[in-house]
Design goal:
The structure is a single chain. By secondary structure, the chain is mainly alpha-helical. It is about 75% helix and about 5% strand. The protein contains 3 helices and 2 strands; from the N terminus they run ααββα. Strand 1 and strand 2 form a beta hairpin. The longest helix is centred in the last third of the chain and has 37 residues.
């Protein structure tokens, strides 16, 4: 029996994953709420309402994460001859992959739109 197959170490590993996941989620929520609260007090910067943009990004990101979680596939995955059947982790992994794909697509579209807009401004 190797180190990674020992029941004691597997339990410690699983518990530490849950602790780190919970700590990460709590720290992320605290950080975002603190940032949004501080940003609301700031005046507009060059006519741009930073607080409203921050709340909009927060709402869209939360909606995207919830939407991709609800639409996630929970069909079993076979790895090394064993079935991975836990629906929670299947949904979470699918949510993170699909959210990444959507965000990268949005970034590419924004870069193309910005380049086209810059090209029009330079011609004028």
């Amino acid at each position: 029996m190797s180190f990674y197959e020992s029941p004691l170490f597997v339990e410690i590993l699983i518990i530490s994953i849950y602790v780190l996941l919970t700590a990460t989620l709590l720290l992320t929520v605290w950080s975002m709420l603190r940032s949004l609260r501080l940003r609301d007090r700031q005046p507009k910067t060059m006519g741009i309402p930073g607080g409203k943009i921050a709340w909009g990004v927060f709402a869209l990101m939360t909606g995207l994460l919830v939407g991709t979680y609800l639409l996630a596939d929970t069909s079993y995955i076979y790895t090394n001859g064993k079935a991975f059947t836990d629906p929670l982790w299947l949904r979470i992994s699918d949510m993170l992959i699909n959210t990444s794909i959507v965000l990268i697509s949005i970034a590419v579209i924004c870069v193309i739109a910005g380049a086209m807009s810059l090209g029009r401004k330079l011609k004028v």
